[in-house]
Design a protein that fits this description.
alpha/beta; D-Maltodextrin-Binding Protein, domain 2; 2 domains; 3-stranded parallel β-sheet; 20 helices; 11 strands; 13% strand; globular
Length: 466
């Protein structure tokens, strides 16, 4: 009996000890939640070291872990197709202005201004479009053309369309031709089949339209049009004139390119390329390392000025992180690092960058890595920074009326058909020539074989008869 009581008491004490340990033990800290942010951007369009830094920043502000998934696309059309499916989990896209117009008109993207009030303001984050961080001239330009576009996007990069060239082979006389250089109007034999053009209906269309204006080849009814009106005109009669000009160009160009033009110019495979200013700036710096001198030129007649902006699709699963990412990319230090990495010009206001100590310290570090020869050329870090931000290629005048912005084509199907005909021009006729040459060769070969067979048979009969 005593043993039973003693055992029972021991059992009660053991249970009490376990319960006490569970109830009064220190509580283990809960694991932080892990979120995902999907960024869908153009290739080679971000300093990738910023990704991990943003993930750390997000953890500091929200207390949650963040996995940033970064993927790229080659064209705005590829991006639009993916977003328009409606079943993606993309949180950030970086389209061009005409694609933003189409996304907005088809109700595929959020108003960033409204999301900012919901997610940005509670965190003390100001909308870059409204606090002077983004270049106000860019905001005025896109809103003046597209309406309320600054409600739907925060500008990221911007620039112009122009002529990139190899200075060893392209003369000042060639450049004086303006857009006519893509037709080799100065008849420089060195440029024959050494000219590249973008494989893009929009860029080549703008180039051809401005060439026609520059050489007074426009019909009378279009001569009073501004550049803005001309590069967006898709009237059937006007389109036919542009199409013929692009077909005529096929006789002198090397071909069409998407992203290898700058490499071909550096390597001397081509001497002239239709290029975006950001690509040109990047290529010029890369070529200089190899001792190759490249240049970039926008003809006086004018050009296309373009803008890419950050948007949030309505399929976004993490709009708070998307808003924070946009704000982080608009910080002056992020803007400068992106510019150095990709060559393009940030939409962040220059004065904001120059006033930022961290951004200036970064530029000083870059300057210190220059060769002694380059340092001597600039004459000091202050002079280098001043030249960097006053470069007209990098920072064109956004208010220049001769720089037009392209919108979504009104008759897109007709434009695509026109572009297909242009690219096929001359190819089909050569295919026919080759085809008929093969057919003629085949006929003669067949005839020759039949004659040879008859001859051999005749000799065989003659031998048998003998």
């Amino acid at each position: 009996m005593k043993r039973t009581v003693k055992a029972f008491v021991c059992l009660i004490l053991a249970v009490f000890t376990v319960v006490s340990a569970v109830c009064f033990a220190p509580t283990a800290p809960a694991l932080a939640a892990t979120e995902t942010l999907v960024v869908y951007n153009c290739a080679d369009y971000l300093d990738l070291t910023l990704i991990e830094e943003f993930e750390n920043y997000y953890k500091e502000v929200t207390g949650n872990n963040l996995k940033l998934v970064y993927s790229t696309y080659d064209t705005n059309e590829t991006m639009y197709t993916e977003v328009s499916k409606g079943d993606s989990s993309i949180d950030i896209i970086v389209p061009s202005e005409y694609a933003i117009q189409k996304l907005r008109d088809n109700n595929l993207i959020y108003k960033v201004s409204e999301l900012w009030e919901t997610y940005g303001t509670p965190l003390g984050l100001e909308n870059p479009n409204r606090n002077g961080l983004v270049n106000s001239e860019i905001i005025d330009k896109i809103d003046g053309i597209f309406g309320d576009m600054s409600d739907y996007t925060v500008p990221y990069m911007w620039g112009t369309l122009g002529i990139m060239y190899n200075a060893e082979y392209v003369t000042e006389e060639d450049l004086s031709a303006g857009w006519g250089i893509f037709w080799n109007v100065k008849d420089n034999p060195k440029l024959h089949h050494k000219i590249l053009v973008k494989d893009s209906i929009r860029d080549t269309y703008a180039m051809a339209v401005l060439y026609l204006k520059e050489y007074d080849l426009l019909p009378d009814e279009y001569k009073g049009y501004t550049n803005q009106e001309l590069i967006n005109c898709t009237d059937e009669s006007f389109r036919k004139i542009v199409e013929q000009a692009l077909k005529d160009q096929r006789d002198v160009i090397k071909g069409y390119e998407v992203d290898f033009g700058k490499d071909d110019l550096i390597n001397g495979i081509a001497y002239v390329d239709l290029a975006w200013s950001g690509d040109a700036m990047y290529a010029i710096e890369e070529a200089a390392v190899d001792g190759v001198e490249l240049g970039y030129y926008v003809p006086e007649i004018g050009s296309n000025i373009w803008f890419d902006g950050m948007c949030i699709p309505k399929t976004s699963k993490n709009p708070r992180a998307a808003v924070m990412f946009i704000e982080y990319m608009c910080r002056p230090i992020s803007a400068v690092r992106n510019m150095y990495e990709i060559g393009y010009t940030s939409a962040v206001e220059v004065d904001k960058i120059l006033a930022d100590e961290e951004a200036m310290a970064f530029m000083a570090e870059c300057y210190n890595e220059f060769s002694d020869e380059d340092k001597a050329y600039y004459g000091g870090v202050e002079a280098y920074i001043e030249e960097y931000f006053s470069d007209e290629t990098r920072y064109p005048d956004a208010t220049d009326p001769n720089l037009g912005v392209m919108q979504t084509f009104k008759d897109n199907d007709a434009m695509i058909s026109m572009w297909e005909r242009v690219k096929a021009h001359g190819i089909f006729s050569w295919k026919l020539v080759v085809f008929f040459a093969i057919m003629v060769a085949a006929v003669f070969a067949t005839w020759g074989v039949s004659v040879l067979v008859r001859e051999l048979r005749g000799r065989k009969r003659l031998l048998v008869k003998r």
